[in-house]
Amino acid sequence: MTTDLPVSPAVRRSAELEAQLARDPGRFRVLTGDRPTGALHLGHYFGTLHNRVRLQDLGVDVFVLIADYQVLTDRDVAERLTEHVEGLLLDYLAIGIDPARATVFNHSAVPALNQLLLPFLSLVSVAELGRNPTVKDEIVHSRQSAVSGLMYTYPVHQAADILFCKGNLVPVGQDQLPHLELTRTVARRFNERYGNVFPEPDALLSAAPMLLGTDATKMSKSRGNAIALGADADETARLVRGATTDAERHITYEPERRPGVSSLVLLAALCLDRDPHAVAEEIGDGGAAGLKRTVTEAVNTAMAPIRARRAEYAQDMGYVRGVLRAGNERANAVAEATLEEVREAMGMFR
Ligand code: TRP
Fold first, then answer.
1. Between β-strands 103-106 and 169-172, what pairing exists: parallel, antiparallel or unpaired?
2. What is the mean pLDDT of the chain?
3. Residue 237 Cα, ligand 1 centroid: separation in angstroms?
């Protein structure tokens, strides 16, 4: 399929970066992360998780952050944190994040990272914080009665997430681009004011098209419309059976006109590593029932090895928690070294 959509500078830059990654993976340090607010799902898998493992396997140094403090941006209390953190660890290990090569850590265990927030806040204006389109959108959708200071400042905290380890490449979706731009601004201003300490990191945009949830709206951890990475075959079948389709019998891939049907076709195509148009054509007059049969089988087949590994790791939570402890140790060493440099550059009494 060809489109005449203009290619955005971020997309063009990402293509350049991919070429550099193939040539010289050792030049890059990647930082990515998730908020521990619920189970990771197939949208995460095809959107970002899969890509992290690809980068790790290319030889890139990958840091994976469990952003526990960031949970508090849009809710009063972070609930079931331990459960969600352990769930993320299981998901990471199951998809192939290798703790011998990658560093998995969480915000609240790395004090020196969090301390970077103070000098970084001094580098941005209140007006800039108020203009961030992603933050504005999150405020509109927030269920809180008052907007907290963390909501406006978490993008600066995110700059600390990336810059503490001098990450220079951040795989993101479109919604995170304003945060990345702010991170670049923080790095540039710090360097101008105090001397060269930080890289200006690049965004690496995901090429994967977006999967919708089973209700044909945005797939989300908290909307009950997602198939979790850790779901079993029966649960998958049940969720797919309940998915929104439409009244047209003939199955086609037309994301604009038929969002529900097309997202199911796309999910099957991603699992089968095939073109969605070809998958739709093959189902043809099989209708919604045929489509759902294909999707369930494709998901269950593709996810079987991941689910089996996840179940195995779940038998050994001592090991799983140890992965985070070791990652936090490494992250602390890196963060303390960076904070030392920052205090030195700023002329702080030490
Ligand atoms: N905001 C990201 C999300 O909601 C999570 C995150 C926190 C992150 N810190 C980060 C992503 C730093 C990339 C870089 O998905």
1. unpaired
2. 95
3. 31
Q: Is 161 near ligand 1, meaning CB less than 6 Å away?
A: yes
Cα–Cα distance, 215 to 220 (Å, whole number): 11
**pTM tops 0.85, yes or no:** yes
DSSP class of 228: B
**pLDDT confidence of residue 2:** 46
The owner of tokens 């709206």 is: 217
**Residues 219, 259: contact at Cβ < 8 Å?**
no
**Which atom of ligand 1 is the closest one to the Cα of 70?**
7
The predicted pLDDT at position 227 comes to: 96
Burial of 9 (0-12, 13-18, 19+ CB in 10 A): exposed
37 lines ligand 1 (CB under 6 A): no
Q: Where are the alpha helices (DSSP H) in 132-258?
A: 133-141, 149-163, 177-194, 233-241
List pLDDT tens digits, range 308-338: 999 999 999 999 999 999 999 999 999 999 9
Is the CB–ligand 1 distance for residue 21 below 6 Å? Answer: no
Neighbours of 207 (CB within 10 A): 11
The pLDDT assigned to 37 comes to: 93
Q: What 3-state DSSP class applies to 98?
A: coil
Whether ligand 1 lies within 6 angstroms of the CB of 48 is answered as: no
Shortest CA distance to 171 belongs to which of 204, 210, 208?
204
Which stretches of the chain drop beneath a pLDDT of 70?
Answer: 1-6
Please provide residue 229's backbone torsions phi and psi, each rounded to the nearest 5 degrees.
-55, -35
